[in-house]
TrEMBL record:
Keywords: Lyase. It comes from the Bacteria. Residues 16-84 form the SAF domain. It holds the Pfam family GD_AH_second. One of its GO terms (biological process) is D-galacturonate catabolic process. Transmembrane segments: none annotated. Belongs to the UxaA family. This is Altronate dehydratase family protein. The keyword Ribonucleoprotein does not apply. Gene3D superfamilies: 2.30.130.110. GO terms for molecular function: lyase activity.
Length: 510
């Protein structure tokens, strides 16, 4: 479809007091009935279309995104200089908007890897997890022995074409930490990765004297079977541990390679939803399009996981209204209360979340970002709220409590079982998430064209009228199925995804 002539601004809801610049607008550009831009307006930013008195709420999406910190006249640029946070009541109204989800008549399928325990994988890696930062280098040396040489093209795994790689997942904690919740959370994260369907076999490597003892990790998480554990001190040092790790990988490669892909229902999809490097178009194009795709996943019987609690703050009342029960809705309210207490204790504010890039792209407050970010989850019922890295067992739309920092949030979702990840971005985030493939969705065409090597889907045609949100959502859903069937994403082509492993660190470093 050809681009159609579009007005210079986008109005998202009749109740809104602002409109969004479709491109850079010079002074004098008409932005409403008898209203012209009073100054140059950056692309994706907000322009007032009515007067706001100081202290008056400002609406976008029909919802409050902040309060005028000074009088705002029609045609003026609305951003950090005249828009700020403020208190307002939210009606949680548990479940009033919950509706039965209509399943599709003929569920879609993809070519997945069926594990012996019945779970379905989308990739087939051998994993190396580390109990502590002190064992990180040893893990990386083992993985390096099986890495393709980008200069010569030599691939040690060529004889085993069904093995996607050997990946070392290292981190910066595991010792010098307080026990209790910080240790429990780390072990839950490592356990989730050790059990992940996308790993055929796993090595757990420790140093030997750390707080997060390998034995304690194995017992607490009930890990056995495919996992081989090694302590560097007991093995006799770096060289001997690396040699033993390489020998283990070579020992299991034949078994790992025996997998074959087979037709499985789309209900086996468990999709992590992420956004990062957002801009003023994120809540207009990529996030709603991913929401349309999320609705399709749920209608086909699958699961989608929304996270980033600070980036849902201020919009959580729209999700509690979709909760299947008051208990589920209250779980989300409790999550937000914890974050209010946590940030106050740390001397921070919930509105500190929008990054400089987000603000440069047109997002002013956390309320505004939250309203756009939650669009990724579509419109189906909220069926469960889970803790960070907790196993996700429910089918449908699930919320996981995580920080807003993308690598930490995605790490929790994958630990929870996500076998696919979709990541929307307006500024251009480059991101992978081994062992789970990551699909990158660009909010606007200029960025997509500039970073086409990193972006999988261009959602920009929604802005120009070439495609609808639903049409792009269908494209995303079809790409989900293809990716789950083995088609490599742009981030996989760059071998991204190991360095992004980032467990949430709580508590004091001692």
């Amino acid at each position: 479809m050809d681009a159609v002539t579009q007005p210079p601004v986008i109005r998202l809801n009749p109740e809104d007091g602002v409109v969004i610049a479709r491109q850079v607008l010079p002074p004098g550009t008409p932005v409403g009935a008898g209203i012209a831009a009073a100054a140059r307006i950056p692309a994706g930013h907000k322009i007032a279309v009515r007067r706001h008195a100081k202290g008056e709420p400002v609406r976008r999406y029909g919802q409050i995104i902040g309060f005028a910190t000074e009088e705002i006249l029609p045609g003026q640029w609305v951003h950090s200089h005249n828009l700020g946070m403020g208190d307002f009541s939210r009606d949680y109204a548990f479940g009033v908007d919950a509706r039965p989800t209509e399943p599709v008549p003929v569920p879609a399928t993809f070519q997945g890897i069926l594990r012996a325990d019945g779970r379905v994988a989308t990739r087939n890696y051998i994993g190396i997890i580390t109990s502590v930062n002190c064992s990180a280098h040893v893990a990386e040396l083992i993985a390096l022995a099986f890495r393709r040489n980008p200069l010569t093209g030599e691939d040690p795994l060529a004889p085993w074409p069904n093995v996607d790689g050997v990946v070392a997942l290292t981190h910066k904690t595991g010792c010098g930490m307080t026990q209790g919740e910080p240790l429990t959370l780390l072990r839950r994260t490592l356990g989730g990765f050790a059990r992940h369907a996308n790993f055929s076999h796993v090595i757990a490597i420790g140093l030997g004297c750390e707080v997060n003892q390998i034995g304690g990790l194995l017992d607490e998480q009930r890990l056995s079977g495919r996992l081989r554990n090694m302590d560097i001190q007991e093995m006799g040092g770096t060289r001997k541990t690396v040699e033993a790790g390489i020998a283990f990988v070579r020992e299991v490669l034949e078994e790992a390679n025996k997998v074959t892909r087979q037709t499985v229902p789309a209900s086996e999809l468990c999709v992590a939803l992420q956004c990062g490097g957002s801009d003023g178009y994120s809540g207009i194009t990529a996030n709603p399009a991913l929401g349309a795709a999320s609705d399709l996943v749920v209608r086909h019987g699958g699961t989608v996981i929304l996270s980033e609690s600070p980036e849902t703050y201020g919009a959580e009342h729209l999700l509690t209204r979709r909760a299947v029960s008051a208990e589920v809705g209250q779980k989300l309210v409790d999550v937000m209360k914890w974050w209010e207490d946590y940030t106050a204790r740390e001397g921070a504010e919930m509105d500190a979340n929008p990054s400089p890039g987000n603000k440069l792209g047109g997002l002013t407050t956390i309320l505004e970002k939250s309203l756009g970010a939650m669009a990724k989850a579509g419109s189906t019922n909220l069926v469960d709220v889970v803790r960070y890295a907790e196993p996700v067992t429910a089918k449908g739309f699930v919320f996981m409590d995580t920080p807003g920092y993308d690598p930490v949030g995605a790490t929790g979702q994958v630990a929870g079982g996500a076998n696919l990840l979709c990541f929307t971005t307006g500024r251009g985030s480059v991101f992978g998430c081994k062992p789970t493939p990551s699909i990158k969705l660009a909010t606007n065409t200029p960025m997509y064209q500039r970073m086409e090597d990193d972006m999988d889907v261009n959602c920009g045609p929604i802005l120009t009228g070439e495609e609808s949100v639903q049409q792009v959502g269908e494209r995303i859903f079809q790409l989900m199925l293809a990716t789950a069937s083995g088609q490599r994403t742009k981030s996989e082509q760059f071998d991204c995804g190991a360095a992004e492993f980032a467990p949430w660190v709580l508590g004091a470093t001692m």
